[in-house]
Amino acid sequence: MVKSAVWKYRDGMISTHPALETFPAAWPQIPDWARPSRDPNPEDWACFAGAAFAYLDVALRAPGVPLALLRDRLALRAAVACTALTGRPESAGALRDAVHLRCPGDSAGPAGETYLQWRRAVARPVSCAALHAVLPGHDLADVTRWRAAGAGEGMPVARAVAVLEAVLSEAPRAETDALILAEAALVDALGWPRITPVLTPGLAPRDLRRTGADLWLACHRAIVAAAGEAVQLVSDLSRRGERLRAAAPCLRARGAEEAVETILRQDAVTPGALSVLRSDRAARRFCDRLVALGVVRELTGRDTSRLYGI
Amino acid sequence: MLRDHLDRDLADLPPEGRWRAWICRIEAVLFASAGPVSRADLARVVGQGISIDLLIADLAVDLAERPYEVARVGDGWMLRTKAAYAPAIHAAADAGGQDLDLREFDFAVLATIAWHQPITLAELKEIFGREVGRDLISRLHARDLIATGPRAPRRGAPYTFVTTETFLAAFDLQSLADLPDPEQLADAGMAPDARP
Question: Are A101 and A270 in contact (CB under 8 A)?
């Protein structure tokens, strides 16, 4: 059904088949009864969180979901939340710029470093050694102990809260590190292979100062909000990914297939990162073509230093 | 080469002797280093999986009576003399090379970079209402207080400036979160504007 999309390329004018405008169909979203009403009881939040996790679990296992791209974008949202936690004003766009416009060897600045840390955290399967590698401020022994705080029985959110409390009681300033470890506890409990931030993006700056039942409630609220958005994101990215793949056969540039795969793995790319296309100019033309086809977006709205993503 | 042959585990020593030897090694490494030493580097001179934090805590106890202390800087530690001995050091020792030797305006620019990083020369000019000279920037560079950050998404893709670990060490900050809060500054009547 993907191949049936008809692409006309005549006199430099490009038109898409009308079916592509809505193709593929939107995914089912979390039903209304599983979304928080105006003023739910504290215990209801556990039910909402469970429903959100169940939906997200099904969505993540669906075929064709660009998982690496999804994790990269969730990492960006988590980094934005952590940047706000430390009182810095940077937006998602600023974090993207810092990471993608950095020359090799240069610092990405404080906010950019936070995003880099999250990107490294979501890139590898969860293990004590892998986590220690992205948390250079702590001993391996500490990381192992904190991981143990979230192991064992209990529901996923409770385990994440246990890790948060364990880390923040010993290292109150290490908010980002605590949240990375809490996300790791979540995916351990959910049986997902890599960190997929669904708690951090929903947290408000003051939430981490809470303890006990307040922290428990804040984490549930955060997860219900962030996991609901993540389900939406999975649906969006899958559809856009399908469209990009459907457009791939009419791209004749050498290296186009690898370039499309790169775009499908990352939140954003600079044309310079598409070195498989052999030259900057070719990469810029390639990106412009994808934008003209309507399968890739330019993310910054600028004329120069552009970033592309689906 | 020596590093490869270092006996990290010290299996022939009794446990207390081993712990003491590791503390001494860490003190020696910090003593010999001009700047902060990272946790990963310190972990290379002690046994596998040993908690650097515990060793540092014991070292700090050892140094309680000494005129110098172990200070946390970013992700690492350094030895430095306690502030109380500053007058004595200034009176007798040749510490001129360590002096930052910056002018008042240099400090103002450095503070602005610290709060607004990553920031370009053009943005600094906007904040101060006057040109910030390249020689000032290179003075800060030469003292390793600032480094280049990501290129700004503007015409000409100018470099931005960010602060370094040395900056944290020089101003006794553990991390940038120790900088006074913008809200505190606003209360004190010197609010930095939000970044454009």
Answer: yes
